[in-house]
């Protein structure tokens, strides 16, 4: 209890005060008693030397008794020392001359005790006054110091809250040096704190700029650090869970424990909502002591999809080439073996060989164009062209073929769609493919090519009233070699790359292409191109 109320220095001060009140009087008596006795004995000696003889004992001041040797001997004194004796159980100081006829002076010893008690009392009063003055001075200095330290306390609280905007201003001379040191410390803390904030911002920017997710945890599996990609992954993992997104998933606990135990990297795969992530668990080691684990996550969904598309692409190209190569080989062997004996049969076989070779040529050319567009090596020859003339030339190109299928191809160009910057040949290739597909799957209907401009963007619509496309096939319609209806026998002149090439050409122009369709009602392709000005 005392230790909580008083400080250590105060407790020592109280001990010293108590001990001084107890010990100092104890040392007064052995020191002062001989001195007082010597003074009293000196007075007794002077009395004896000033008087020659007395007939009866004389009582002088301060109870001093002067008597002759004979009277003194009759009282039967009991000598305790050369200076103290006892008569009738009363203790006296005494002095006598060396001869037997001299006088003897006696003084009660209690006078000496009374004076010692008075000295002790005075000493205690002096100590009390001294300690009172000392405590008053100490209290005054403490109050001054506390008042001078009030600004330091307030600023210390501000600095603890990372507020370094103000400095200590003290009016007391007691704290001048402390004020300078405190303000210097504040400036250094502010610089270091700003450096830490800058490093933290740089670290956060670097982590969030990474394509990989990063999570750092301690040995208790508490999250210390994470970036936005890692938080997105955790949000996906905890979407159907009551756990918060800043908690490590239970499925990772075993890998984390193995990493901490073996001090080796651990690699695993996680599939979440149709996406694939690869996780790398790496131990954090300092001075041969592990203090955490860093988890790096990478979304490899696109890589897997690209690998699948690459495999599908190779398979589709092989499939598309297998048929014409087989036909070329079969009909060539028929001609060489003389199976076709007549000139008409030979011409028929040669015509098939010619058509299949042209088909292979178109396939190869489409693949080369697609490769150039995808890699960015295709250079567009952009110029300003009238949109209305471009649309009417496209429609005129398909009028004959459309009339054979009893299909009407019409144009709907708004007045505000005047001039657009584009590569004429490439964009013609796009619309030729779209209109050709619409003619192939539209019987006795209408194909409309509509164009209008809105907010510096041109909107092109190719609308047909044909068979339509199933909703499940729409997301994959622009993939290479994808066939919406695999049971449908398409015209052999097609390569299966037209829509993929159209998509790349439109995107090379900075535009977008999309499709909507309803089975039995028709299909609409929408192309949006920006109105880009040409500068010399």
UniProtKB/TrEMBL annotation:
Top-level EC class as recorded in UniProt: transferase
Location (main, coarse): membrane
GO cellular component: plasma membrane
Pfam families: HATPase_c (PF02518), HisKA (PF00512)
EC number(s) from the headed UniProt entry: 2.7.13.3
Chain coiled-coil ranges: none
Subcellular location per the Swiss-Prot or TrEMBL entry: Cell membrane
Assigned keywords, A-Z: ATP-binding, Kinase, Membrane, Nucleotide-binding, Phosphoprotein, Transferase, Transmembrane, Transmembrane helix, Two-component regulatory system
Reactions it catalyzes: ATP + protein L-histidine = ADP + protein N-phospho-L-histidine
Domain Histidine kinase: 316-533
Ranges that cross the membrane: 12-33
Descriptive protein name: histidine kinase
